[in-house]
Amino acid sequence: MSSILGTKHSPNFLFDGTVALYVGRDSKRMEIHKKLLASISPELDKHVNNDMKEGIEGIILLPHEEEVVFTLFTKWVYTGDYAYEDDTPFLCVFSDKFNIPTLRHLAKSKFHAEVSPFEPNSTEDAAGLVLAIGYAYDNLPNSDPILKFLAHYASWKLELLRATPGFEELILARPEFLKALLATLKGLSTKPTATTSQMYATEDDWNRMALKALAARRARASQPK
Question: Where is the BTB domain (predicted)?
Answer without folding.
Answer: 17-86
